[in-house]
Amino acid sequence: MGDTARGTVWERLKQGLARTRDGIRGSLQEAKGGLGPAALERLEEVLLSADVGPEGTAAIVAQVQASLAKARDADTVEAALEAALCSVLAGAERAFVLPPSRPAALLFVGVNGSGKTTTVAKVARLLARGGARPLLAAADTFRAAAIEQLVALGGEVGVEVVAHRPGADPGAVVHDALEHARTAGYDAVLVDTAGRLQTKRPLMEELGKVRRVVERLLGRPPDERLLVVDATVGQNAISQAALFHEAVGLTGLVVTKLDGTARGGAVIPLTRALALPILWVGIGEGLDELEAFRAKEFVRALVRG
Ligand SMILES: Nc1nc2c(ncn2[C@@H]2O[C@H](COP(=O)(O)OP(=O)(O)OP(=O)(O)O)[C@@H](O)[C@H]2O)c(=O)[nH]1
Ligand SMILES: [Mg+2]
Question: Does this model's pTM top 0.85?
Answer without folding.
Answer: yes
